[in-house]
């Protein structure tokens, strides 16, 4: 638990952003106005708490330090302010965005620990000139200059890097065509980048604009096509001819690094399995006893090779922050 004396501003601000975003989703003729109002109320409270009580949560909860330590809270605070501005239109959130000390610059990726790209993409949407029939929620409320324009420039530079028309800091393509950035759970960077890419592509399309990468002009359809190529790779169109989403296709990872998937079902083994006894299942060479349908593993290396071994956690560990973004990408591609 985080408190005023044991703060966790990144966690509080991230939760504020999630609640504010959810309030937008539940607002409207087919939503739930009362629930949206409750979500927004708590989002405002958490944002205020995060602003007033700064501090990294792993310092308040030391047991978290070895797993998902936060590198800072400036991105989450900005992320929350942008979502709260979208949800409310209140000037205090607009002022926070304009006065933020750190807008992130051109990032390498969007991740569980770095939300700057997300905030930049949302602000960029609000700066675009949209035909009246296609106006977005806050079109025209943010000036297309100064700090706001800087955020748009940053996210578009990030996307130019992603689609291989930049400086390469956001990864290079493998021989088989996968965007590759890091050896540990590389697909988390692929799915988040593709989510931002298709989202921004739609914003550009609504504004009848394109992504300008130096002297190269990339229309929205080309951005969506790049995203589709990455999804196709993940789902099996790759040199290994393997789907990296478990349970999809004829060939997929059989030994993901996942405790629940590798242990026997409670129906077959209702007794308690201690950590020590679990080792026998971890070291088995056979497929996992349970198929964790829909999970996406970390993915192959920079030469498109994947070692399907339970102990290979860098390539074989699935995560919610890898699979969540691809849901949005798949929905966009299905809509197309």
UniProtKB/TrEMBL annotation:
Reactions performed catalytically: Endohydrolysis of (1->4)-beta-D-glucosidic linkages in cellulose, lichenin and cereal beta-D-glucans
EC number: 3.2.1.4
Annotated ranges, domain Glycoside hydrolase family: 2-330
Active site: 257
Keywords: Carbohydrate metabolism, Cellulose degradation, Glycosidase, Hydrolase, Polysaccharide degradation
Family according to the record: Belongs to the glycosyl hydrolase 9 (cellulase E) family.
Protein name: Endoglucanase
């Amino acid at each position: 638990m985080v408190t005023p004396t044991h703060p966790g501003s990144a966690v509080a601000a991230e939760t504020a952003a999630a609640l504010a975003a959810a309030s937008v989703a539940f607002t409207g003729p087919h939503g739930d106005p009362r629930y949206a109002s409750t979500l927004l109320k708590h989002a405002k409270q958490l944002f205020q708490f995060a602003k007033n009580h700064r501090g990294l949560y792993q310092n308040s909860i030391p047991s978290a330090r070895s797993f998902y330590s936060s590198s800072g809270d400036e991105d989450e605070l900005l992320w929350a302010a942008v979502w709260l501005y979208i949800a409310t239109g209140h000037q205090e959130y607009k002022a926070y965005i304009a006065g933020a000390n750190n807008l992130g610059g051109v990032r390498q990726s969007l991740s569980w620990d770095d939300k700057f790209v997300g905030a930049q993409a949302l602000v960029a949407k609000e700066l675009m000139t949209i035909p009246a029939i296609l106006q977005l929620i806050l079109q025209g409320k943010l000036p297309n200059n100064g700090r706001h324009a800087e955020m748009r420039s940053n996210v578009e530079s990030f996307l130019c890097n992603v689609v291989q028309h930049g400086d390469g800091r956001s990864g290079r393509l493998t021989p088989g065509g996968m965007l590759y950035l890091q050896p540990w759970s590389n697909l988390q960077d692929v799915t988040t980048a593709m989510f931002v890419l298709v989202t921004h592509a739609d914003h550009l399309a609504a504004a009848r604009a394109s992504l300008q990468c130096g002297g190269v002009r990339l229309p929205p359809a080309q951005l969506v096509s790049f995203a589709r190529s990455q999804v196709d790779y993940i789902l099996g169109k790759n040199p290994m001819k393997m789907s990296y989403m478990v349970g999809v296709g004829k060939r997929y990872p059989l030994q993901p690094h996942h405790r629940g998937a590798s242990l026997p079902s409670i129906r077959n083994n209702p007794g308690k399995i201690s950590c020590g006894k679990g080792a026998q299942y971890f070291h088995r060479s056979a497929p996992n006893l349970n198929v964790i349908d829909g999970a996406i593993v970390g993915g192959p290396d920079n030469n498109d090779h994947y070692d399907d071994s339970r102990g290979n956690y860098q390539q074989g560990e699935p995560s919610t922050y890898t699979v969540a973004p691809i849901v949005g990408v798949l929905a966009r591609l299905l809509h197309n």
